[in-house]
Design goal:
Blueprint lengths: L8 H12 L12 E6 L4 E5 L12 H11 L5 E7 L10 H11 L4 E4 L2 E4 H4 L11
Parallel strand pairs: 3-4
Antiparallel strand pairs: 1-2, 1-3, 4-5
Amino acid sequence: MTTVTEADWDALRTAAREAMSRAYAPYSGYPVGVAALVDDGRTIVGCNVENASYGIGLCAECGLVSQLHATGGGRLTHFTCVDGAGEILVPCGRCRQLLYEFGGPELVLETPDGFRTLDEMLPQAFGPSHLG
């Protein structure tokens, strides 16, 4: 696995900002973009896509996970998220759970105050290993 210092965080932030620029957020006016490294070296991205019924909008992390599987699967190793101003944003609880499924507790997230593992951001998470 690539360590925190080996990841090109500038490139990940740039990819997340580019994805954010393509977000569809006409209702909230709050575009979000995400980017992640995959264990095979790929960079994948996602952006939020809203819907007039509000409740069925898709978070940027949903798009990211969809792209992960559409391009061959794998495990997420490093993740960043930006808001409409391009500033670092942390994922909500629901999205942390989604990231846990595809990156596990060792996934490294960029936060406004540094880097954290997903285990630090979502301690004692419920995951696939809990299912029989």
